[in-house]
Amino acid sequence: MASQKRITKELGDLMNSPPPGIAVALADEANLYQWKVTMEGPAGSPYAGGKFDLSINLPQNYPFKPPTVVFTTKIYHPNISNDSPPNSGTMCLGMLKDSEWKPSTKMSAVLEFARQLLKEPNPDDAVETKIAEQYRNDRGAYEKEARDWVKRYASGKK
Amino acid sequence: MDSEDEFMSEPPSGDEIDFDEGTQDSDIGSLSGDFDHDHDNGFGYEKDILANPQKPYEVDYRILSPKDIHSHQERQFNEVSSIIELPPEQAAILLRYMRWNKEKLIESYMDNPEQVLEAAGLGPTLAASPKTKTVKGFTCEICYEDDPTMQTYAMKCGHRYCVGCYSHYLTQKVKEEGEAARIECPFDGCHRIVDSKSLKLLVDPSIQDRYEVLLTRTYVDDKDNLKWCPAPECEYAVECAVKKRDLNHIVPTVRCAYDHSFCFGCSLSDHRPAPCSLVKQWLKKCEDDSETSNWISANTKECPKCRSTIEKNGGCNHMTCRKCKHEFCWMCMGPWSEHGTSWYNCNRFEEKSGADARDAQARSRHSLERYLHYYNRYANHEQSAKLDKDLWIKTEKKMTSLQTQSNMSWIEVQFLDTASKALQACRQTLKWTYAFAFYLQRNNMTEIFEDNQKDLEMAVENLSQMFEKPVNELGSLKVEILDKTTYCNRRREILLSDTAENLKKGTGCTSLV
Ligand SMILES: [Zn+2]
Ligand SMILES: [Zn+2]
Ligand SMILES: [Zn+2]
Ligand SMILES: [Zn+2]
Ligand SMILES: [Zn+2]
């Protein structure tokens, strides 16, 4: 099957030379389609020092359909939902929409994009509109709140 | 009743309308044969719209078949192609990209061709017909297969993938996502649009067909003066010049080649006389208030006299209680005797009690009652139309089985079909008159409107009543039914004409912006 060869290759590349601040593993050794990613909060952002867990689900017809990317660690961010499950942690990323996804896009690009988004939120395309508003109008308060959440949820102590 | 004089002084279309006042209650049908042509087809007059719209409630429009739509597009491809000197396939992409604004396309192309081509995803031009090929040492970046015998494909942008992946990608876009005019190259960040030649090289014929259908869809979707017939599976479109901003003054009702009638403005089924914006408001209100008003449309009620339960099974609102023989009106529950002779205002809501209401609670109760008054009648006509139709279907079946016994031929009983269609159309109109009335400002026009409404309602109930007669009696009622049908259609025409005239003048509705 086309997707298995592609996923194996991508996974191998990501494990051999991981992008900065990103570690990828299979959530379950027997299942190529379920990934577990640990992402370090980028330096110079309020998320610095935090460790975030992401759960990635590749659809059966990957790479023709986009993966779903979910933050399992709570995070205060305009583009990441902090709704109750099943929407909690879902990410709003244009490139992950069916209509915008291209089959040539690699998971490394998706993950790097997600990490970049921690550094530079996109308030115009927000899921958490209140946070987006605060990000625009009171950057200091936003950063403080984000840092508090990092301490509470993403300090790596469990 | 004086509203007749109003009609007389301002005939809707120059037709002769000659109503004999005295005949209304008992003998509606005795109009002279002036409208005989309507007997053949209750809606004959609507079929002539194309030739010359004559009634104030009609609009000019043209029906387009799938073939017409196709040739319209071809013509424009060729036209643009010859002006800007590019092959028709590329003219097609440019036109679709520019949402069929030919003038704008030509102007901006003449201004800066490279920029337009780039923006439309055409990049540097291609001329030759596209081909797939094998490439030594090639690995497909989608599936990571590197079999040297594998066929591959790339458009002019050079982003090459194996044919299997390319085709899977395109098939999914067309089949699952319904994309056609704006499918991009599979490469992340490349916005080149896949042209139809490339697509046809790579996908199965069934997908190609679907692609063509979708392309045609975008043609109609992108043009403001074209609309698809909303009936399921209907492939016809309608061309009409009525603009969005005109919709408060006209209800552009059109009809496709299969006789599906719909509103060009909002694609809902015929909602004359109410304008689109009002319909939208009304439907929203009904949805919001559905709990309060659910009980109203229920099919059983109690007899106002003896309280025994009565079920409604025909469309007619003239009810007779089986137990006590009390005759009453299903809509207002008032005695029927007051409906026929004196003008019992079943259709009019008494505003007076509201004006007196002092406290807020009374006012809010009044406003709910007012809404329920109109909603009740609106829902009731919707329901009655359905019941009328069910009854006709049942009757039709019975007649088929009885045909051998009766000495009427099938053609001869078609007057019942005509009558049934008239009932449907009239109830549809009546239904919307109640939504309309809910938003109607109380002025001197209102009275005329309500009289029109009442007259149509009476006519409809009279005809509807005939439908509940035993099948073997229907034959002898032919002349009467025909006359009542004609009368109903005329009343509907008058009501629609009057309201359309007023809408055009911009008088009437409170909440139209
Ligand atoms: Zn491939
Ligand atoms: Zn490309
Ligand atoms: Zn149709
Ligand atoms: Zn409409
Ligand atoms: Zn009774």
TrEMBL record, chain A:
Recorded superkingdom: Eukaryota
InterPro entries (UniProt xref): Ub_conjugating_enzyme (IPR050113), UBC (IPR000608), UBQ-conjugating_enzyme/RWD (IPR016135)
Entry keyword Transferase: yes
EC number: 2.3.2.23
EC main group: transferase
Record Gene3D superfamilies: Ubiquitin Conjugating Enzyme
SUPFAM superfamilies attached to this UniProt entry: UBC-like (SSF54495)
Keywords: ATP-binding, Nucleotide-binding, Transferase, Ubl conjugation pathway
Tagged with keyword Nucleus: no
Short name of one Pfam family: UQ_con
Residue span(s) of domain UBC core: 2-155
Entries under SMART domains matching the protein: UBCc
GO molecular function, one term: ubiquitin conjugating enzyme activity
Listed name of the protein: E2 ubiquitin-conjugating enzyme
UniProtKB/TrEMBL annotation, chain B:
Domain RING-type: 136-350, 140-188
Region Disordered, annotated ranges: 1-37
Residue stretches of biased makeup (Acidic residues): 1-24
Keywords in alphabetical order: Metal-binding, Repeat, Transferase, Ubl conjugation pathway, Zinc, Zinc-finger
InterPro entries named in the record: Ariadne, ARIH1-like_UBL, E3_UB_ligase_RBR, IBR_dom, TRIAD_supradom, Znf_RING, Znf_RING/FYVE/PHD, Znf_RING_CS
GO biological process, one term: protein ubiquitination
Gene Ontology MF terms in the entry: ubiquitin protein ligase activity; zinc ion binding
EC number: 2.3.2.31
PANTHER family linked: RBR FAMILY RING FINGER AND IBR DOMAIN-CONTAINING
Protein name: RBR-type E3 ubiquitin transferase
